[in-house]
């Protein structure tokens, strides 16, 4: 598991941002009383380890499991799935519930989408006839502090989804993440965008600011002056300007 990064010298109060994510997750855990098994998808396991210690979850009677295609091994009467909104994970969840039923096991099931629920995922759950057996919610984890000057949306496949699959949901996530930053650090006065996806994200952010405005009464001067959004396809070279590539490592 990754170590929780030290954010004491960050230019912004990223510790408060991380603590808010901790509070939201623990609120979910506390709301489900009694002994429970928290099942998280493999990628999310690493992400959560950057936010809080697993010992904090165990204090509330929580077992930890990694979601897979295999049957769930636990004796807990309550199961809490915490997964990203990906279609393949819905099949895993459905199969584990069906496997429990085939064994005559009676459990209480909860499913929390990260960062938000989507119709396509719920449709699969309905097709698998397990949707009604689940209590469904959201864990709005949009930004994860990796270092004092690095925030990650943890959208591993956004480039592939946008350019190849035509799925632009990650663009909405970018806008939502920036809007969430505004609630913490004030409305950002200057948004610069280059590229089709970045321009769309800026437009979505404008809509969010109108629909869910940030109260400026107690904010004072915004802590972030400018955000620059760049499409990856505008600059494909920069990620390769590192020795942490295959040829770079050979060169070293």
Walk me through this protein's architecture.
InterPro entries: Sec-1-like_dom1, Sec1-like, Sec1-like_dom2, Sec1-like_sf. Belongs to the STXBP/unc-18/SEC1 family. The chain is of the alpha/beta class and 252 residues long. It is built from 9 helices and 9 strands. It is globular.
List keywords for this structure.
single chain; 252 residues; alpha/beta; Rossmann fold; 2 domains; five-stranded parallel sheet; two-stranded antiparallel ribbon; 9 helices; 18% strand; Sec1-like; Sec-1-like_dom1; Vacuolar protein sorting-associated protein 33-like protein; Sec1-like_dom2
Helical proportion, percent range = 40-55%
Principal-axis shape: globular
Report the CATH architecture of the largest domain: 3-Layer(aba) Sandwich
Distance from N terminus to C terminus (CA atoms, Å) equals 28 Å
What's the alpha carbon Rg, rounded to whole Å? 20 Å
Kindly report the CATH topology of the largest domain: Rossmann fold
The proportion of residues in beta strands is 15-25%
Give the number of helices: 9
CATH homologous superfamily assignment of the largest domain: Sec1/Munc18 (SM) protein, domain 1
Run of helices and strands: HEHHEEHEHEEEHHEHEH
Count of extended strands? 9
Q: Briefly, what CATH class of the largest domain?
A: Alpha Beta
Mean of the pLDDT scores?
Answer: 92
Q: How many domain units?
A: 2
The major β-sheet equals:
5 strands, parallel
Summarize this, please?
One of its GO terms (biological process) is vesicle-mediated transport. By secondary structure, the protein is an alpha/beta fold.
